[in-house]
Amino acid sequence: MLGVLVDFGKENWPIHIALASMDSTSESSDVTGTVSELALGVTKVWEPQRIVRPYVGAGVAAVR
Questions:
Q1: pTM, whole model, 2 decimals?
Q2: Rounded distance, CA 47 to CA 53, Å?
Q3: Distance CA 64, CA 62 (A)
Q4: What is the CA radius of gyration of the chain?
Q5: How much of the chain exceeds pLDDT 70, in percent?
Q6: Dihedral in degrees, nearest 10, Cα atoms 9, 10, 13, 17
Protein backbone atom coordinates (compact mmCIF):
# COMPACT_ATOMS: atom_id res chain seq x y z
CA MET A 1 0.00 0.00 0.00
CA LEU A 2 1.22 3.47 -0.84
CA GLY A 3 -0.45 6.54 0.56
CA VAL A 4 -0.38 9.91 2.21
CA LEU A 5 -2.03 10.89 5.49
CA VAL A 6 -1.83 14.51 6.62
CA ASP A 7 -3.47 16.43 9.42
CA PHE A 8 -3.52 20.15 9.92
CA GLY A 9 -4.80 22.73 12.35
CA LYS A 10 -3.66 25.55 14.55
CA GLU A 11 -1.54 24.76 17.59
CA ASN A 12 -4.32 25.66 20.03
CA TRP A 13 -7.04 23.59 18.28
CA PRO A 14 -8.13 20.58 20.39
CA ILE A 15 -8.50 18.43 17.24
CA HIS A 16 -7.03 18.58 13.73
CA ILE A 17 -8.52 17.93 10.30
CA ALA A 18 -7.14 14.82 8.57
CA LEU A 19 -6.97 13.93 4.86
CA ALA A 20 -5.75 10.64 3.41
CA SER A 21 -5.31 9.03 0.01
CA MET A 22 -4.07 5.43 -0.35
CA ASP A 23 -3.74 2.92 -3.20
CA SER A 24 -2.73 -0.72 -3.36
CA THR A 25 -2.42 -3.23 -6.22
CA SER A 26 -1.77 -6.94 -5.84
CA GLU A 27 -1.07 -9.28 -8.75
CA SER A 28 -0.71 -13.04 -9.02
CA SER A 29 -0.68 -15.38 -12.00
CA ASP A 30 -4.46 -15.29 -12.50
CA VAL A 31 -5.87 -12.49 -10.28
CA THR A 32 -5.25 -8.75 -9.99
CA GLY A 33 -6.75 -6.69 -7.17
CA THR A 34 -6.73 -2.96 -6.58
CA VAL A 35 -7.88 -0.97 -3.53
CA SER A 36 -8.17 2.84 -3.46
CA GLU A 37 -9.16 4.93 -0.45
CA LEU A 38 -9.93 8.61 0.02
CA ALA A 39 -10.64 9.69 3.60
CA LEU A 40 -11.61 12.82 5.53
CA GLY A 41 -11.73 13.01 9.31
CA VAL A 42 -10.41 14.44 12.55
CA THR A 43 -7.48 13.49 14.79
CA LYS A 44 -6.62 14.19 18.41
CA VAL A 45 -2.84 14.15 19.04
CA TRP A 46 -1.32 14.00 22.52
CA GLU A 47 2.14 15.51 23.16
CA PRO A 48 2.50 16.93 19.61
CA GLN A 49 6.10 18.13 20.18
CA ARG A 50 7.51 14.63 20.86
CA ILE A 51 9.01 12.24 18.32
CA VAL A 52 6.37 9.56 19.04
CA ARG A 53 2.87 11.04 19.21
CA PRO A 54 -0.11 8.90 20.26
CA TYR A 55 -3.32 9.86 18.44
CA VAL A 56 -6.93 8.85 17.87
CA GLY A 57 -8.70 9.50 14.60
CA ALA A 58 -12.20 9.14 13.18
CA GLY A 59 -13.83 10.00 9.90
CA VAL A 60 -15.38 8.76 6.68
CA ALA A 61 -13.71 6.97 3.80
CA ALA A 62 -14.63 6.08 0.24
CA VAL A 63 -13.06 2.74 -0.68
CA ARG A 64 -13.06 1.19 -4.14
A1: 0.69
A2: 6
A3: 7
A4: 15
A5: 98
A6: 0
